[in-house]
Amino acid sequence: MQRTFSVVDEALAQANLTAHQVDAVLLVGGMTRFPLIRQAVNHYFGKDPLDHLNPDQVVAQGAAIQAWNLTSFTDAPDAVLLDVTPQTLGVRTVGGFVEPVVERNTPIPTSLTKVFHTAQDLQNEVRIQVFQGESRMAADNELLGEFVLSGLRAAPRGEVKVDVTFALDADGIVTVQATDRETGRAVDMTIEASSNLTHEEVEEMRFDEIGF
Fold first, then answer.
1. DSSP assignment, residue 137?
2. Nearest 10 degrees: CA dihedral of 49, 55, 60, 65?
3. Average pLDDT value over all residues in the chain
4. Three-class SS of residue 20?
5. Alpha carbon distance 186, 176 (integer Å)
6. Which domains can be identified in the chain, with CATH numbers?
7. Residues 110-168 pLDDT 10s
8. What does residue 164 show for φ and ψ, rounded to 5 degrees?
């Protein structure tokens, strides 16, 4: 049970809420009928969980309500379901760090852009490595994919700027585009699933880093 409340602690922290700010608690699943669980919920939230709904049926009822909403009937129940990004998405930068572009729990669809610059003198290309995870260190996150934007003007480091845009559609498909600000040349990559590269494969990759 303690593991369950640890997850609740994390969810509340992400939402910047305290347990006593939660308006109502709905339990799901037959196991939640046990008095010990209901007592623990009351102790944690300071209120009794709702008891007028069948915990075995609430998920199906919620799905039915959402399906009704999607039909766009004018008399559909007033309910909104928001899809969000499950983890932070970002790109690797100088020193093996990850610069977040799309933070975890960002509603989708969305499109966000950050500006990066070259990290070396006379650098004429950048390799964009896309990572998923909450650590600021690339080695601790999951590499989803990579691509190269070449043809940059050879210039002192930091002088050439590259726009990196993450576009997520309603299905959670991610398109990452890198654009040379000077020429408008752009290269993109679409991510539909994790690459599942091993840690060793990530460490073996050599590339020209970008800065921020």
1. B
2. -30
3. 85
4. helix
5. 10
6. 2-81 (3.30.420), 84-211 (2.60.34.10)
7. 999 999 999 999 999 999 999 999 999 999 999 999 999 999 999 999 999 999 999 99
8. -115, 120
